[in-house]
Design brief:
5-stranded parallel β-sheet; alpha/beta; Rossmann fold; 4-stranded mixed β-sheet; globular; about 400 residues
Length: about 400
């Protein structure tokens, strides 16, 4: 097969550098009041970050705290969130984690999202020896660096690429274009997919674009000229819906496969309209999937609180919070350093199965849980959701 294939002011740079230098001398962090446990929520809550997903993250976290406190808290202590907006920016995200630790006195950091931002955020968590947990941050490097403070309950790029390549081959596509944003997530997937496709019977082109672009017309025209059979779109920002809408506007006839299940987000159909018909998306959720009593309790509570069912990535975030809860109960303390030591060995019922971290040193499967199946579904009519989509392929 053939393969071819990020403005910060001077003052802000200096401030960040000084802050990072100071971290090296701080082995741990003084926690909050004795009668409460503080958890840091650091997410993209405003643009240019992926604020749509940030809103879903915040709703999930708020509900978990509400239900946990109504049930008596953790070891009799109420839980409180220290919330910070990372704006989808590397420097802002790193500073937000520092603030969550030093100002917010957080015992753990949760809710992180964009891979490029998360890779900077985990360096801060490492310096402060505070656990940081991811749920839909896909860069292999996140757990691949084997930092004791870093944990992930959810998928990662090389695993997803290894499952997507057989799907592409099974569909009979011969000319494949991966449209990848220039981030650790987008380019990381492209690299992993290239590796997974080495022995597959199709040709691959990789097209890179600026992650936060507001107009993809020129890029989609370039992709159209390549005459692909399928375009796989790897992005999390505005370019998600734009790739589909503007692709069809310039005459792209190829099948479109999204890199993740963003077509299930509320703004999809309002933005893309008829262009969304036929789009295929990968997801980790299906009616055939086992949901535990913990998972069903979450689904029912979320539906009652917000009037809609949660997306699968919110299940994993719920599991992240329950992992921290299990570690606090096991350790008998919310001290971050103790949680770093305890988290690798926690076991508890997750939303879709038993949760236990793999701790394979020297691999991406270090402090990693990834027991799920990947489902590929197709949207056939305007307004379709996951329940109406057609299941076209399953990889276990």
């Amino acid at each position: 097969m053939n393969r071819r294939g990020l403005g910060l002011t001077r003052r802000a740079v200096i401030g960040t550098a000084v802050g990072l230098a100071a971290m090296a001398a701080i082995p741990s962090v003084v926690q909050g009041a004795d009668d409460e446990i503080i958890l840091g929520l650091v997410s993209p809550l405003s643009e240019p970050g992926d604020a749509r997903s940030g809103e879903a993250i915040k709703k999930t976290a708020d509900l978990w705290v509400k239900m946990t406190n109504e049930a008596g808290g953790i070891d009799g202590k109420k839980v409180r969130l220290a919330v910070y907006d990372d704006q989808g920016k590397v420097e802002v995200g790193a500073a937000a984690v520092e603030r969550a630790v030093t100002e917010g006195h957080a015992s753990a950091i949760l809710g992180i999202w964009s891979s490029s931002v998360a890779l900077a955020q985990m360096e801060v968590a490492k310096r402060y020896n505070v656990p940081i947990l991811a749920f839909y941050t896909w860069a292999d490097e996140f757990t691949g660096k084997n930092y004791p403070q870093v944990f992930r309950i959810g998928p990662y790029n090389s695993q997803i690429a290894a499952q997507m390549a057989p799907f592409v081959e099974a569909r009979g596509y011969k000319k494949v274009v991966v449209l990848a944003e220039d981030t650790a997530y987008g380019l990381g997937f492209a690299k992993s997919f290239e590796e997974a496709a080495k022995d597959k019977d199709f040709d691959l082109e990789i097209v890179q674009f600026q992650a936060q672009t507001q107009d993809l017309t020129a890029v989609m025209s370039r992709v159209k000229a390549m005459e692909p059979d399928v375009v796989i779109v790897q992005t999390v920002f505005t370019a998600t819906n734009l790739s589909i809408k503007q692709g069809r506007e310039v005459g792209l006839k190829a099948d479109i496969v999204t890199g993740w299940d963003w077509p299930l987000l509320p703004d999809f159909w309002d933005t893309v309209g008829e262009a969304g018909v036929g789009v295929i998306y990968p997801t980790f959720s299906d009616a055939s999937m086992t949901v535990t009593s913990t998972g069903q309790q979450f689904i029912d509570a979320y539906n009652q609180e917000y009037g809609v069912e949660p997306a699968i990535f919110q299940y994993y975030l719920w599991d992240n919070f329950n992992a921290v809860k299990a570690a606090i109960e096991k350790a008998g303390t919310a001290d971050p350093a103790q949680l770093v030591e305890t988290l690798p060995n926690v076991q508890f019922e997750g939303t879709i199965g038993e949760i236990a971290f793999r701790n394979d040193e020297g691999t991406v499967n270090f402090h990693q849980w990834d027991k799920f199946a990947m489902f590929f579904k197709q949207l056939n009519n305007v307004g379709d959701g996951d329940a109406e989509a057609t299941l076209v392929h399953v990889v276990k």
